[in-house]
Amino acid sequence: MSETNPKQEEETMQIGMIGLGRMGGNMVQRLRAAGHEVVGYDRDPEVSDVEDLAELIGRLEAPRTVWVMVPAGEATQATVSELGAMLEPGDLVIEGGNSRYTDDVPNAALLAETGIGYLDCGVSGGVWGAEGGYGLMVGGDADLVAHAMPIFDALRPAGPRGEGFTHAGGVGAGHYAKMVHNGIEYGLMHAYAEGWELLQTGGVVTDVAGCFKAWTRGTVVRSWLLDLLVKALEEAPDLAGVDEYTTDSGEGRWTLEEAVSKSVPMPVLAAALFARFASRQPNSPSMQMVSALRGQFGGHAIVRSE
């Protein structure tokens, strides 16, 4: 059973959830466990409660609250646009995907034309959120946030409201905060990864996994990410079978672009992001050139590829 917050049972709501993938589906479980009535829609009929958006909206009582949890970009914008044509004044849309914060002001303005409210919500917690709760960063009008608090209380971890939830500011602030959160996450992950590589190759430590496990208690580098690193090593000792190819979902790039536009130095994020790019190159063209130049000016040996 997931931990819940004290007043959830007496403050239940009805909510429509659009997008029932790994995150959306788990969020529905947590909301229902807290006593909220959830009507879910997904393009996959196996997991959807209704056939289409029209049926979802028809199942909800006014004023309606609809949470959008679909892929960022065109899919989200198309969904918000559809909702704008189908919902009524006084209804509320909460956009909880990994959208770029610059999308939020146009979305809010579009819905405001017909009197529909809009909140953006950065959500962190991954596939584990159904059990332990989600970290929520919300942007938008304070009255709309207050209206939706029973939903946010159900989704965030149990405990004081300041733990796992913040009303970050106006429209766009929720996704802006989540963007920076993910930029920090890039740097933390890469620091752990570099430490793991040095321990593996240094030839001094014989129980590398044991070191990381020891660090999960009582040390200044302990964190949930470190707990997950230990879990990854338990599932795949020495990461056997794990390919180095690492994708990025956009937030790290957006954070770095924002840092450049504001002249804020973020060398740790830059290094972590560029390392992901390097992981996708079977043979780095830039490092080929470095090798060739070393051969030219210093006569250093060049390893020739077959």
Number of strands: 7
Number of separate helices:
12
Based on CA atoms alone, the radius of gyration comes out at 23 Å
Q: Give the N-terminus to C-terminus distance in angstroms.
A: 57 Å
Strands of the widest sheet, in order across it, are: 2-1-3-4-5-6-7
Reading the helices and strands in chain order gives: EHEHEHEHEHEHEHHHHHH
CATH topology of the largest domain: Rossmann fold
Structural class: alpha/beta
Shape: elongated
The whole-number mean of residue pLDDT values reads 91
Question: Strand portion, in percent?
Answer: 5-15%
In the CATH hierarchy, the architecture of the largest domain is 3-Layer(aba) Sandwich
Q: How many domains in all?
A: 2
Specify the CATH class of the largest domain.
Alpha Beta
Q: What is the share of helical residues?
A: 40-55%
Largest sheet: 7 strands, mixed
Family: Belongs to the 6-phosphogluconate dehydrogenase family.
Protein name: 6-phosphogluconate dehydrogenase (Decarboxylating)
Keywords: Gluconate utilization, Oxidoreductase
GO molecular function: NADP binding; phosphogluconate dehydrogenase (decarboxylating) activity
